[in-house]
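Input chain follows. Return structure tokens only.
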Amino acid sequence: MMSAAARLRRYRRSVAARAAAGVLGGYVVASLVAVLLARVLPMVRLEAVITATLLGLLVWPPIAMACFYVRSARRAWLGVLTATAALGSAALLTGWRL
């Protein structure tokens, strides 16, 4: 049986992991959305980059909220990493270079 202090530490670690997934992972996903959209939007390059950046920033808050909606921090990180891999692969296939 866990003590109250151990449960509290476990809860705090879970919240910290979810916050990191939402903030850091959400930033990476939002950046990759912006990269991908900037590559595929049929506009002048400057307009495509600005539009893609604004749309990418709209993706960040729902990802952060989803990290606290799922059952565990592990699932939050799994979702963020899956989205990162999918968007990164799509961006690389459109010709984006690191």
